[in-house]
Design goal:
Elements (H helix, E strand, L loop, with lengths): L2 H16 L4 E5 L3 E2 L31 H4 L4 H5 L3 H7 L2 E4 L6 E6 L2 H10 L4 E4 L4 E6 L5 E5 L2 E4 L5 E2 L13 H4 L32 H16 L5 H16 L7 H13 L4 H14 L3
Length: 284
């Protein structure tokens, strides 16, 4: 590594730190350096310990995202002072700066993002694009083909400031990491599901309240740009939590919700499973 190259990488890290973005050096293979003498080469395996902000058996945060820092003393002192001479790139911890990176690792993934997500700051990568949003969330890999989410407890390679204005983290991105509960299968002899039994006190003063709730639920499902499975489940859960204990829901209402879900590509079996899961979650 030339002196000019190592200086440029360190300067980039210091610029990030000055902006409140935790930074760290990456070695060959986009792997992080350890930042304590005992783990400088990640000799202990590089497994962060959540209770000590990333330390293994040493007292300093020394691995991966947990080692990223905005402290210029940490970035310029040993062992990182030596690490910059071998570094191949700079990385940063998006979640530590209140950011989320949608890592689009293929041209097909980038096309999907342009069709499904609100525009935001975009950075070109060697294989695709990074879309950067304001707001942190949990990280997850392979949320869909060619798409990773990098935010809390993750690091992303710094490839420049990008273009465009960062926009707030949208629900469409958060929904990508939502896992629907394991399906509760109805009896093998039938797919049809009954409505919750009534008997509770009805809080709805007019039928218009229920009608408005069903219409809003239909709209929420119909307008889902991504994460349809999760949207259907959460919508069923919301409808049942509000209207499911007093006997106001009818088969007609349930049919309208199922029809909206099936119009988005859900099959009858998945609708039945999502309805059963929501009832189980609410103890119905």
């Amino acid at each position: 590594m030339t002196h000019d190259r190592s200086t440029a990488l360190l300067n980039a890290a210091l610029t990030l730190a000055d902006a409140g973005v935790p930074a760290l050096p990456l070695r060959a293979g986009k792997l992080p350096f350890g930042n304590c003498p005992a783990c400088a080469g990640s000799a202990c395996g590089g497994r962060p310990n959540m209770k000590t902000a990333g330390a293994c058996r040493c007292s300093a945060p020394c691995h991966g995202w947990a080692a990223a820092s905005t402290d210029t003393v940490v970035l310029t002192s040993l062992p990182w002072a030596a690490a910059w001479c071998e570094a191949r790139a700079v990385a940063y911890h998006p979640g530590g700066a209140g950011l989320t990176v949608v890592d689009l690792d293929s041209p097909e993934a980038a096309v999907w993002a342009r069709q499904s997500l609100p525009p935001t700051r975009t950075v070109l990568t060697t294989r695709g694009e990074h879309w950067i949003y304001l707001g942190a969330m949990r990280s997850a890999n392979a949320v869909r083909p060619g798409v990773d989410i990098k935010s809390t407890m993750a690091y992303a390679r710094w490839l420049g400031p990008g273009i465009g204005t960062m926009t707030p983290l949208p629900d469409a991105v958060r929904a990508l990491t939502v896992k629907e509960p394991p399906p509760v299968r109805p009896a093998a002899t039938t797919v049809a599901l009954s409505l919750p039994a009534g008997g509770g006190e009805c809080r709805h003063r007019t039928s218009a309240y229920l009608e408005r709730g069903i219409a809003m639920a239909e709209h929420r499902i119909t307008e889902a740009a991504s994460g349809v499975h999760a949207t259907v489940y959460r919508t069923f859960l919301a409808v049942l939590s509000t209207h499911g204990r007093c006997g106001c829901l009818t088969e007609t209402h349930m049919g309208r919700l199922f029809a909206a879900a099936q119009a988005k590509g859900e099959n009858p079996r998945h609708c039945a499973d999502a309805w059963a899961n929501a009832r189980t979650a609410l103890g119905m």
